[in-house]
């Protein structure tokens, strides 16, 4: 069945370093992916998205890479800051708004 | 910045009781969703709603669940007879597009605790 999974449940980085959060998906027909950030006690917050006709998309301090060959998605955060500490979810947007979320990676930024 | 608002932020109820969770989506949005997140787990889709009817629902969304848009601003999720396993964070979301490339905006969530 469909699933979107993450490689690591936790990631700890030093402030100022770059962070890479990975995600694997299983549905090769998926054509749109989103990264969400969830801070403690809050709802998911959109970070960046990518369509399957792209392999890279950049935002402010964030980059998403898509490798359709191995069905892998990653989120890169440049110069990670304490405010980046949160749980990060990848999600597949399926059938117009039905998001299939991965398990989440908790990012901790050490000062 | 417009946002999705949810009430209550936390509700504690006894098993078997009815619960209504309320959401005010972003005003010009037409597509509405409920998701839930059991503590420590991933966010799961429950239901999508458009044009006053359910567009899609997951297998979690059984006969105990219902949604309604009683007026032009509110979107509610009702659980008729709560079970212990309904304890979770419930997130409302809205979008101005049903297309697969539309961004969903999530509320802060309503925490439901069933005792």
Word description of this protein:
The complex is a heterodimer of chains A (111) and B (115). Chain A contains no helices and 11 strands. Chain A is mostly beta strands and 111 residues long. In chain A, the strands form 2 sheets. In chain A, strands 2, 4, 5, 9, 10 and 11 form a 6-stranded mixed sheet that branches. In chain A, strands 1-3-8-7-6 form a 5-stranded antiparallel sheet, with no helix packed on it. Chain A is globular and about 40 Å long. Chain B is mainly β and 115 residues long. In chain B, strand 5 (43-50) and strand 6 form a beta hairpin. Classes of the chains: A mainly beta (111), B mainly beta (115). The A-B interface holds A 31-32, 34, 38, 41-46, 49, 51, 89, 91, 93-104 and B 4, 31, 33, 35, 41-45, 48, 55-56, 58, 91, 93, 95, 98-109.
List the helices and strands and how they pair.
The complex is a heterodimer of chains A (111) and B (115).
Chain A: E1 4-6, E2 10-14, E3 19-25, E4 32-38, E5 45-51, E6 56-58, E7 62-67, E8 72-77, E9 86-94, E10 98-101, E11 105-110
Parallel strand pairs in A: 2-11
Antiparallel strand pairs in A: 1-3, 3-8, 4-5, 4-9, 6-7, 7-8, 9-10, 9-11
Chain B: E1 5-7, E2 10-13, E3 19-24, E4 31-37, E5 43-50, E6 53-57, E7 65-68, E8 75-79, E9 88-95, E10 105-106, E11 110-114
Parallel strand pairs in B: 2-11
Antiparallel strand pairs in B: 1-3, 3-8, 4-5, 4-9, 5-6, 7-8, 9-10, 9-11
């Amino acid at each position: 069945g469909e699933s979107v999974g993450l490689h690591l449940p936790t990631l700890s980085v030093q402030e100022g370093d770059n962070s890479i959060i990975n995600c694997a998906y299983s549905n090769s027909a998926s054509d749109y992916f989103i990264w969400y950030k969830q801070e403690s006690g809050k709802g998911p917050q959109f970070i960046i998205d990518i369509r399957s006709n792209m392999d890279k998309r950049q935002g402010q301090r964030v980059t998403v890479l898509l490798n359709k060959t191995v069905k892998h998605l990653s989120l890169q955060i440049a110069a990670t800051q304490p405010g980046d500490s949160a749980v990060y979810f990848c999600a597949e947007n399926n059938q117009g708004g039905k998001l299939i979320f991965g398990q989440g990676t908790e990012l901790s930024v050490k000062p | 910045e417009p946002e999705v608002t949810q009430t209550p932020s936390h509700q504690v109820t006894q098993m078997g009781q009815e619960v209504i969770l309320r959401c005010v989506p972003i005003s010009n949005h037409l597509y509405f969703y409920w998701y839930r997140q059991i503590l420590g787990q991933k966010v799961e889709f429950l239901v999508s709603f458009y044009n006053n009817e359910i567009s899609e629902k997951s297998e979690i969304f059984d006969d105990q669940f219902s949604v309604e848009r009683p007026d032009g601003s509110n979107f509610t999720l009702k659980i008729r007879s709560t079970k212990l396993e309904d304890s979770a964070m419930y997130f409302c979301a809205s979008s101005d597009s049903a297309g697969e490339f539309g961004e969903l905006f999530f509320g802060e969530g309503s925490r439901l605790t069933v005792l």
